[in-house]
Every structure is written in C-alpha cells, then in structure tokens.
Design goal:
Layout (H helix, E strand, L loop, with lengths): L28 E6 L5 E6 L2 E4 L2 E4 L6 H9 L1 E6 L5 H6 L3 E2 L6 H5 L3 E2 L3 H5 L2 E4 L8 E6 L22 E2 L8 E4 L1
Parallel strand pairs: 6-7, 8-11
Antiparallel strand pairs: 1-2, 1-5, 3-4, 5-9, 9-10
C-alpha cells in the first residue's frame, strides 16, 4: 500500500533487465505433421498462442515439423493433459531430422525416427479419432520470418476445433 504522504518506503524495489528473448512460456502443444515418406511426425512445443480465431506457432525454421508444415500446408495442434508430461519429456530432445543439425546436436538432441513410439503415443489418422483433449487441425498460410529477410505469408484458413470429453483421456495424437 502506498502512504498518503507520498513515501516510497512501501514500494518494492525493481531492477531493469534486458533479456535477449522475452518468453514466459505457454502450455505445451504437440504438433503433428506428415513426413515426406508419409509417416507421422510429432513435435512438442511451448510457443503457441491464440489471436482471435487463429493460432500462432513459434517454431524454428530448421525443424522437421516446420519443413513438413510448409511442404504440406497443414498440421494438427494437439493439447494434451498435464498428466502426460513424462511422455512429452521423452521426446523433448528428439528430432525427425537425419542428420541432426549441429546446433541441435550440441544442445543434446538426437534423431528419433519414431517419436510416437518413443513417447508411448499412438498416431491417429484424422482429427476426430485422436484422444488429445483438444485437437485443432490447421492449414498454414506460410512462414512469417523475423529479421532483414522477413517475408509475409497469408493467414491459414479457419478450421474446426475438436474438444475431447475429459472423461475419455487417451494417449493418441491426430495426424493430418
């Protein structure tokens, strides 16, 4: 509380910081895409947020999931219950890229050809058959890049969101 006499004694002290990235986290989503050979890929991420009826995905440009989304023009955003955190952690440092990019290998990433099996998830074809609590099939409008060579893409089309009854908690994730 502030005193009526204008004393600053009750105001907590602050310090100014300048982080290289302003990131305070969001819930983890599992982004599912199709690899060039038609096999499913699953990418955990925690940089997804909604703007009106669109979802913005903050993904790096060199990941297999991003390459798949750009190539196919679609993905499924799966929101899984917190109780599956251990399964998500099993694939946190995996990549579908082979060979693993040097910068990822230096951070402890390794190639995992079947991330669904490694995590104990079951790929489910079509958004209605997935057991994630919330599945959002999405079309992509193309990547939006930061920096001097940034380009502008178009927004993806609005697509339905499927919510799963909380009593039917499974371990499947939808694939496009």
């Amino acid at each position: 509380m502030h005193s009526s006499q204008g004393s600053n004694a009750d105001i907590p002290q602050h310090r100014v910081i300048e982080p290289p990235v302003l990131y305070f986290g969001t819930p983890v989503a599992l982004i599912t895409t199709l690899n060039p050979d038609g096999t499913p890929n699953i990418s955990p991420m925690s940089s997804a947020w909604a703007l009106n009826d669109r979802v913005v995905l903050g993904m790096g440009t060199s990941g297999q999931g991003t390459e798949n989304m750009v190539r196919e023009g679609e993905c499924v955003i799966n929101l899984v219950p917190a109780k599956l955190w251990e399964q998500v952690e099993r694939i946190a440092r995996t990549t579908g890229r082979n060979p693993v990019p040097e910068y990822k290998a230096a951070s402890g990433y390794y190639h995992e050809p079947d991330k669904f099996e490694a995590a104990g998830f079951t790929p489910a074809l079509g958004p209605r058959s997935a057991a994630a609590h919330c599945r959002m099939p999405a079309s992509t409008g193309g990547p939006h890049r930061r920096g001097p060579r940034a380009g502008r893409g178009k927004m993806g089309d609005r697509l339905p969101t499927f919510l799963r009854d909380h009593r039917d908690a499974g371990q499947a994730c939808a694939c496009p």
